[in-house]
Amino acid sequence: MTAQDVHSPVDAGTITVTGTGWAEAAPDLMLVSLGVESRAESVAEAFAAAGEGLAAATSVLRSRGVAPGDIRSTGLAVRADLAWRDGEGQRLVGYVASSSVSVRLRDPGMASAIVSEAVLAAGDDGRLNSLQLVLSDDSAVRAQARDAAWQDALQTAGQYAALASATLGKVLAVTEPRPAPGPVPLAGMQRASATEGPSVEPGVNRVEAAVAVTWELLQAQRG
Q1: Which phi and psi angles does 136 have, rounded to 5°?
Q2: Same domain, 36 and 62
Q3: Structure pTM?
Q4: Are 184 and 134 in contact (CB under 8 A)?
Q5: CATH number assigned to the domain comprising residue 158
Q6: Of 82, 108, 134, which residue constitutes the final position of a domain?
Q7: Strand order in the sheet with 89-105
Q8: Three-state secondary structure call for residue 176
Q9: pLDDT, tens digit, for every residue of 190-208?
Q10: Taking the CB of residue 172, how many other CB atoms lie within 10 A of it?
Q11: How do 205-220 and 9-25 pair as beta strands?
């Protein structure tokens, strides 16, 4: 019996393992939703006030170097303003007009000051609806996360193969589950008043990846 006969591998099945990994990087883009909400006795007055407030906010953004392509209108609405009065029931007391824009700020270090100035310019009707810190291009970080996920899968599969007195053969299949949900708005920033002047700490963003890999599972034949 030759050494080759002793250690000749035979197919003993397959093993499928899901590996996970992650990588982090500092965000370089802030996504902001700014708006106004104005109340008045008539629709025309409410619309006019909302338009003036939002124009003041966007004027600040442009004066601070925000490109026109980074400012986009996202909402415009008007509704009746109703109030309950004893003995009269629900009565119409006026109208509420709201308007909003989404803004991309490409310098997170200056974003806090720009946002504060824009909301202040809108006056008491100004609203800071949401704020997110993201990566404008996460491809390099996602590649690092995939590398980590692959190594995790390989290490786990190797451990199980060793426990089964086998070795890993060739890769038969690779699938990548959908990535984790996108960035989450920072807590405490919703509906901020115009006088808060929020301070923003960028921190880091984590990108996660997962990979499911199927290997041949080879076992040495002895005899």
Answers
A1: -65, -30
A2: yes
A3: 0.70
A4: no
A5: 3.30.110.170
A6: 134
A7: 71-85, 89-105, 29-40, 126-134
A8: coil
A9: 334 434 455 677 788 999 9
A10: 12
A11: antiparallel
Q: Which amino acid is at 36?
A: V
Take residue 129 and report the two structure tokens written for it: 């609806």
Structural domain harbouring 70: 29-134
- How many residues would you count in the chain? 223
**Per-residue model confidence as pLDDT tens digits over 149-169:** 999 999 999 999 999 999 999
What is the CA 191 to chain-centroid distance, rounded?
A: 19
Q: How far are the Cα atoms of 93, 124, 135 from residue 189, in angstroms, in the given order?
A: 30, 17, 19
Contact 106, 70 (CB under 8 A): yes
Number of independent structural domains in the chain: 2
Give Dmax over CA atoms of the chain in angstroms. Answer: 104
180: its two tokens: 């984790």
Phi, psi of 8 (to 5 degrees): -65, 120
Q: Is residue 122 within 8 Å of residue 57, measured between CB atoms?
A: yes
